[in-house]
Amino acid sequence: MLDLLQAYTGCPTTGLQFLALPRETLLLHPSLDSIIILNARTLAFLRALTFWEVFPGTRHIAGSVSCLTIDSGMKLVVASMASRVAVWSLSTAGGYQVHDSWRLHSSLVLPQEQEVTALDCKSGLLAVGTQSSLSVYTLILENDLPTWSRKWTYPTKSLARVRFSPSLMYIATTSTHDTIVRLHLTTSGRRTQVIPHPRPVSDIRWRNPGTHAQNRNDDPILYTTTTDGTLRVFLSVLDAPQRVQLHAALDAASSIPLSSQLNSLEGDGRMISSSVFPLDRDAVLSMLKGVSGGAQSAEEDARSRRVREIAEEGWDLFLRVLADGSLVVQAVANIDRRPPTLLKQFTLLQSPPGLLPSPPPAHLYVLPAPSDPGTLTLVTSPPLAAYVLSPLPFFDARADGLRLVARGADQILQDPREAVDHSRREVVRFVRTPEGEGVGAVYADGSGEVWCLKRGGGGLQRRGKWRVSEEADKVDQVVVLDGGTCFVTYASQAGRLTLHTPAPATLSVPPLVALFSLPVPSSSPTSLSRTILAVTETHTILVIYANLSPEPALAIRLESSLPLPTPPRMILPVDPMAWSGTRGEATAMSADAHDTLLSVSEDGELAFWVPENGLLDLLSGEVKQMNGVKANGTKPNGTVAHGDTQSSGWRCTGRVRTGRKGLSRAACSSAKKSVLVVPTPEGEELTIWDSKTSEFSSGLEYQELLSSSDPINDLDWTATPDAQSILAIGFAHHVELLAQQRMTYYDDTPGWGRCHTIDIGRTFPHPIGDSIWLARGSLLVGAGHHLCIFGQPKSKTGDERNESLFEFVARQNGPLDDYHPQMMLQCLLWEKIELVKQIIVNLAKNLESGRSPWEWQRLPLENFFKKDEVVKAAHASRKPQYSLLFSEPEMQNDDDEDPFSRSVVEHLIERLEENPLPHLTPNEHASLLVLIQTALEIEEQRRALDTNGVRYLISMRAYYISHKRLSAPSTPTSGKTGTIDKRIRPRQRLRYRDMIWAFHSESQELLLSQSVAACSGKMTWSEARSLGVFLWLRSCESMKAHMEVVARNQYMAGDNRDPTACSLFYFALGKSKLMLGLWRQAAWHKEQSQMLKFLNNDFTQARWRTAALKNAFALLSKRRFEYAAAFFLLGGSLKDAVNVCIRNLDDFQLAVAIARVVEGGDDGPILQALLKDTVLPVAFRDGNRWLASWAFWLLHRRDLAVRILLTPLQDVASVLDVRITAIGDPHYDDPSLALLFSQLKSRTLQTAKGTSEISGRTEFNFVLQIARVFCRMGCHVLALDLLRSWSFQRPSVVIPGRKPLAQTEPPSPVSTRLALEPALRHRASVFIDMDPVTAPSTRSTSPVSNVVDLGAQPPKEPEKEEGDTIARKAGLGSLMKTAKQNVSVPEFDMNAFF
């Protein structure tokens, strides 16, 4: 999703080191305090090793790694800084995982005055050269720890290079003060030979005989290179093998043909400088033999003749790079043969010029390529570059034989001459341009650099830098303008702003705490002035103009302040990354004016501010006369103009009361999402707030407590093209990306979730200084002196394109496809059955077409706005027409048949089971199949099942599907991302919301049979409780019959047929004699004889009822609670049985079930007390409005059953005579609340009364809140349909005996149960379920009550009744009077049915 595109880790200035692994070759070079590890072929960054990992005391010392060497055999990396030596090892246990397999191996500390100047390590031997000595150390184990033991020391001066011979018998050294190469014995350190050179020695190398040597011996062969570009070959003397003598010299004159020598001379006649490098013999010969052996045809054999000859003869090759970038390959033959006089040297080829950059590189290496054995990798430095060397065209002197594949990332970012300055490279802060195309970095010493983002977002290009010469010039803040072409810095100690242009300009300003720029107005893109906003320590806002040309200048145009009652804690800019418009296009009264500033008060109140009137024009770049202020921003006397108290120029667009105090960090996104960080004793609390608040939403969208051991270092927002916000939270070693998550109907999902984590702790030991978003979703991370750009990698041709971050966020929170199960589910819940059928048919057509999902045809938007009645009427008009009474229908087109049929659905399900849709989790895929099958059953049973029954049926099936999926060993993963879908959580029961749909359904018998079928025909109490059967059944006879079924299944569930498992239910039904028969069959039970004797008694007598109660208390003491409740029922004490269910079994559903069955209805005192004392407090504690509405309905307070859906819980609690000890979260994030409210608000006179006490403004805000919830669920089109179709009509009463004036629509002979539109339909009449005169008011002028304990809830001011509420009450009063006067029982009239 976000990969490392480029790492800027510094340019190598010394020689490179390489470590060959089975699958790749590593390139290592020092960079300040680090060792950088790259892939030698691609130069891709792999890891950084820091010296202070071994010596923590060097963390803040301005030193650099001076020497680096590699032990290829033991996989050791040895580095030195001053007098310290650190060693790392690459473990082979993890299969050479470069990120994780580096371990600290050992260390070595020399005397402080002995600064290490040269290193070499081979096979456990370490040669250390200092300013005054040469020492050799051997590796030993001391207390199971690797330790370096000094073998010998030889005094010498200023060593520059140390090289072990391949046989480890000799050591070759050079020094900086002379031109001599010295040879020492490894065993004793004795110097054996001194080899003088006419020029300073630039490199020494021992020839490695390798596996291709013709004469295997330990004779030393040494190559030396001097600064004039001459390479000398020294071979051992025959009679004195410990000494070497010169046998060949390859200089520039001998390598260049005579025809080219004239072009290679400088003006004074000297040869132009060139560089010569020996090529790795093993790598070259292995590759050449492999290539020549594969040639088959005559043409290929002709091209590879020279390659085969080189491989067979085993020549040693040397590559010379000339000043014009051309290459000359020289060969030396017979080095392995004796006598040495047989040596031959000749030039193999000269390539065209321009293959390598000019001047020639100081270092060049040829390496094997494990990923491509038929080629070699050629690496040069400086500048660092990697090339692919193809042998056939290269040795044929063709230009395509050497191809550039990678170039070092830091060629323009860092100056090698300044690399020793370690402290200034520590990144402290990043600042970007408003659009993210330019970025500046402030370093620890106050210096910094400015870059622009390359096209495509894959890299940076430096635009400028500033340096600090004095402490007063130390820069604290910077503003980057015009994509990095110019910038303004602020030095707090000097109190000065500086515009960095070819002619710098300065401006003295008061102490500043914030400095930022605004986007360039689109109305004046070529304007030569830019607007900068600055916030002073006194919270004054300065508007500063930066004129770029012709004369660069800075000027304060205006001073203003926010109209706040108290000084704010902080004033921050609103991130402008997703501003769709521009500042120049916004007007003071426009609805799309973007917020510019965010102020945070001491008590955590957020306020959003936009400029208005003259300030808006000023920020838009329009120079006008403002309140007596001249165009240059000064009054006639030259003083700066201050904003007046009457019009500050800033208008507040919204406030959010968070209640958070002591903020440490805050940031605001373009979409007005604000993140706050508050330190607490338990850790750091991170909260995300939305600016849209109402009585239904506090604005809090996300809350998390983070450990204080890893504090938050920075916060930064970016925006997707569809204006969704992504938050980057920076920690010490990783950055977490948070994005909004789509809400789901069945699972509780947090509003925000981690979509990606960038962990650089495995690659960069330095802590992160800052991270910032750039344009096109790129993230720049600064760790120490390293910079990393993360972004979407470019997919290679033919490879499957990876999903980008923006695409992932859009999939997680953007609008859903028509066929997504959540969209289809909401359409079914909101009675859009015909639309769901169209979606299913369209999905089947798209699958049959064979096109990719990106090319599928979508349903027109207007289809979502049509009522089912309209769709069915249009479909009915296409049915066959009859010309005569008994004639055949006139079938004009076969397409008139309904495309939604069982065959279509079954075929679609088969295809989906074989090939699931992309980007659907396994749970979503299973839900889609269930919804398609359910839509078919609804169509086939539409006369028997009403809409509320459909809603319950869908929820019940989704519940069982979820449990079936979660019974798998592991949780399903989300698509191709491989991340665990945390939204799939097991539930113990259906939500009360789903149970209430069944409670208000008129198809309860059918729902009961479907519920029993879902339980495989054997519903026990646990299943009945999970489905809420005894909560939603209304018929007392049905409850009794079903309780007997549950009792029988409880008895049959176990293999032993235990009568105690069903005693509670049978005793509730009053069937003690049946229990006696069951006990007679339980011969295995140890209590059989006692129970048979006890149940034979007559429990209508008080004596035996008392005995049953005594046994119940005895069972309580034995903690046999369910059996105790059964004996309480046997003893006639329903209240005690209910108390046991609540207090001991914690099962209020069981208590409700036995109370409703024993009392024979819903009006019994035990049930009423249970609802008031248990159910309602639980509902208020959990914020469950559905459960509270159900309880109020059974309590015959149906006005409150409606009000509880919208009214704040504390307001409802204030009018109750029930003690509410705690009130939970309001839970207004359920769109079905609006669905139930539209159903109940005019069903009865009581509900109409409750509706009248809800103000119009409250209902309006409630509908807006539900629309936002729809958008959060990805159902944007349903949100639009809700807003355009919601009805605010009030209920009315039809007076018996009075006929309507006109019939608005003809009666339909077809049942319209499934075609109801509760949000649109105006109910013609209401059911009168109250006395219109004596009905009390449920609305209280003040919510304060003595019996309500609101805990930590803030006190609420007494609310005033709105005008529309008073009008509603007046209208309801006349409605009640009309109902009271006209209510009568009409006589039975058969004609009323026709």
Short descriptors:
1394 residues, 4-stranded antiparallel sheet, alpha+beta, single chain, 26% helix
Question: Could you please describe the fold and organization of this structure?
Answer:
The protein is of the alpha+beta class and 1394 residues long. The chain has 35 helices and 58 strands. A 4-stranded antiparallel sheet has the order 1-56-55-54, with no helix packed on it. The two termini are 67 Å apart. The relative contact order is 0.04. The C terminus is likely disordered. InterPro entries: DmX-like/RAVE_component, Quinoprot_gluc/sorb_DH_b-prop, Rav1p_C, WD40/YVTN_repeat-like_dom_sf, WD40_repeat_dom_sf, WD40_rpt. Pfam families: Rav1p_C. This is WD repeat-containing protein.
Helix-strand blueprint:
Elements: E1 3-8, E2 17-20, E3 25-31, E4 34-39, E5 45-50, E6 67-71, E7 76-81, E8 84-90, E9 102-109, E10 116-122, E11 125-130, E12 133-142, E13 145-155, E14 159-164, E15 170-175, E16 180-185, E17 191-196, E18 201-206, E19 221-226, E20 231-236, E21 244-250, H1 252-255, H2 258-261, E22 275-278, H3 281-293, H4 298-303, H5 305-313, E23 316-321, E24 327-333, E25 344-350, E26 363-368, E27 376-381, E28 385-389, H6 391-394, E29 402-407, E30 427-432, E31 438-443, E32 448-453, E33 460-466, E34 477-481, E35 486-491, E36 496-500, E37 505-508, E38 512-517, E39 529-536, E40 540-547, E41 553-561, E42 570-573, E43 597-600, E44 605-611, H7 613-619, E45 650-657, E46 665-668, E47 673-680, E48 683-690, E49 700-706, E50 714-719, E51 725-730, E52 734-740, E53 752-759, E54 768-773, E55 779-783, E56 786-791, H8 805-813, H9 821-829, H10 833-849, H11 868-876, H12 902-914, H13 922-940, H14 947-966, E57 973-974, E58 979-980, H15 992-999, H16 1004-1014, H17 1021-1027, H18 1029-1032, H19 1036-1053, H20 1063-1068, H21 1072-1080, H22 1088-1095, ...
InterPro entries: DmX-like/RAVE_component (IPR052208), Quinoprot_gluc/sorb_DH_b-prop (IPR011041), Rav1p_C (IPR022033), WD40/YVTN_repeat-like_dom_sf (IPR015943), WD40_repeat_dom_sf (IPR036322), WD40_rpt (IPR001680)
Biased composition (Basic and acidic residues): 1356-1367
Region (Disordered): 196-220, 630-650, 1335-1367
